[in-house]
Write the structure tokens for this entry.
Amino acid sequence: MTGSRTRRILSYVGIAAVAVYCLAPFYWMTISAFRRPQDQFDNSIVPVRWSLENFTAVFRGDNGFGRALLNSVIVAGCTTVLTLIIGVFTAYALARLRFRFKNALLGLIIATTMFPGISQLVPLLKLFTDIGWINTYQAMIVPSLGFALPLSIWLLNAFFRQLPFELEQAAMVDGCTRGQAFRKIIVPLAAPGVFTTAILTFIAAWNEFLIALSMVNEKDMQTATVAISKFTGVSGFDQPFGTQMAAGVIVTVPLIVVVLIFQRRIVAGLTAGGVK
Amino acid sequence: MTTTHDERSAAAHAAAGAPRTRKARGGGGAARGERRLAALLLSPTLLVLALVIGYPVLAGFRESLYARGEGLDENGFVVEGTRFVGLDNYTAIFSGDAADAFWNAFGNTTFFTFTTVILETVIGVGMALIMHQAFRGRAFVRASILVPWAIPTAISGLLWRWIFQADGAANAVLRQQILWTADGFPAKLAVIIAEVWKTSPFIGLLVLAGLQMIPKDVYEAARVDGASAWQQFRSITLPLVKPALLVAVLFRMLDVLRMFDLPAVLIGVNQDSVETLTMIAWFEASNLRYGSAAAYATILFGYIALIAYLFVKLLGADIIGEAREQTKRAKRRKPGPKRKAVAS
């Protein structure tokens, strides 16, 4: 029985190692945010004195962080809603209907996720400059559809294929039209998958950096990730790490809470999609 | 990807498909209606993708053949605006100082891709094995594994920049005085560590899902036959997890090839040691040299396409496997053992 006991101990050690690996840097970010600015370079595991000074500094007027958060919510929210509206129909057709070139189409959609953002960015940057879209929300939302749409179609397609479509068939035999059957049978059953896709798409859009950095040069229109990377210290020379860590915590913690609440669904979505 | 799920969905599809095929055979109207509906449902997506992906890629290629600035026309007058320069933007990249910068960025991109993907795969598979063996605490670890994944890349860049400060946590732990965020090899290492930290849990998650699909009695049988733990891993676990793993690795590779946020935030743009192809193209674009930026982007695009092609050809990663298989099966209307042939 000693063999099984060593195995048990080894397993606990392994679990602890994985947890430390994943959480230690995040712990460090959080703990650094709660230090007093004058203790910032103190490397103790727990702050000597806890303080919220960094958090109040984040919302100081010249950072414009509140506005940046709002911008992020608008851009990521619009991207998610638009993507889902367009994506649900396409994923339904791909999962349910039979037509030629379906494999080619699936391949094409998945291939578009491989395109580097930069090759999409240069012409759009030029186009948006010409039509006066620089520093607008749509300049960030429209290019984001390029990566959000294939991702969500892929995920929705994976979810929809697991649905019991014979129920829809039965409803149509009982006299429902295809539209009614879709609305009354498929939509309620598909809701969890759509919801998971919404979370994953929102997180992807929330984390977007390259497009948001390039399409906007006005402080008022920056998204949160861009704004944080551009924070300046009081002196303007040293990087205000304490403030940045606090802002990082503010931007990340809501995501982590959502992720933990819907943990099972998200894992199901990630493994079904296999995409980032 | 998953046997049980495949069988279930195939059965469901067969049940649903049978009456439909009969109907379709009875009259072409239903099938045509279905095709028309499919076209209707697909068109918004195709339109959007054509506008935000198709158009930019083509326009980008065209852009790369033009340059902005002043030039002399054949009568000796100065003309402003963009003009056609043929392959000049490309030849400019491969000559003089620009060539050094390009090959440096190309080398960095390739180096980051191979090192991070190999490390991620090894660490990810290790994590999955640990979690799979776990007696207790699996839920806790699975929750904590999602934390690095949920942190925005730009934020994780800042976080690691803070850790890698001259008097930061990394140096305190190592009792060294390494200038991580200055130029040089430590900067490369910092980027690799940060990237691997953020993405290996994701691979771990995918592999764990694959592991949980392997029936326990396969291992029982192997143990009865006297297979060692390593033999079990090599001849049972790896082959069964391989399809899922290959797709994950492919996506990771393509993602690192276009890496931008992490080195840009962690080290900064215009640093030789970490400059990637996307960063070089972005720098050109932000200096309004669109033609040159588009040329870099087009080269990167070609490079990514080549790697994706080689990966799929050589290793047989089947990206749309599950979806394709289902349509094939539906046509034959019987679950066949042809999966391997389709997959490779």
Notes: The longest helix of chain B spans residues 96-133.
